[in-house]
Design brief:
Nuclear Transport Factor 2, Chain: A, 6 strands, 154 residues, 39% helix, globular, 3 helices, alpha+beta, six-stranded mixed beta sheet
Length: 154
């Protein structure tokens, strides 16, 4: 009986501590999400690239997969060139379905973005994003996989 009680208490202790670490991990992912949104809003390509794992994969609509940070950096540089004279005036990301398991997390979001370009009316777009994140040894979350698609509306 004492052995069974000890086992039950040990299981409850592990369950309680994993639940707690899941909560703190979730908060860390929420901080990651805020930074992710800010990088898009301020078109900060350097900070955005720093959020990627070296072997990250980006799946953009209508494009070949971007494999690794070097390919993602080149794509971001092209976006910067194409977007010269433009700015993101609104970036809304409504995240859902956060699942944290140890050093891995996944989530998805609805997105609404407004881009203003010199001499043109603002462009409003909607999309969805799915993220797979990995917590590195230093405790920082990085993007391992990202997938975007367009939506006609939210």
């Amino acid at each position: 009986m004492k052995a069974r009680l000890a086992l039950v208490l040990a299981v409850l202790a592990v369950y309680g501590s994993s639940r707690e670490s899941g909560k703190s991990s979730g908060k860390t992912v929420e901080e990651f999400n805020r930074k992710f949104r800010e990088c898009i809003l301020h078109m900060d390509q350097v900070a955005m690239l720093a959020m990627w794992a070296e072997d990250g994969v980006d799946l953009m609509p209508g494009e070949a997969p971007l494999l690794g940070k070097k390919a993602i950096a080149a794509w971001l540089k092209d976006v910067e060139k194409l977007g010269a004279g433009s700015r993101v005036s609104k970036e809304e990301l409504d995240f859902h379905g956060l699942e944290v398991s140890g050093d891995w997390a996944s989530e998805w979001a609805n997105e609404r973005q407004v881009v203003e370009s010199e001499g043109k009316p603002p462009t409003e777009g909607y999309g969805k994003i799915a993220l797979v994140l990995h917590r590195e040894e230093n405790g920082r979350w990085t993007i391992k996989q990202e997938m975007w698609n367009d939506s006609p509306h939210r």
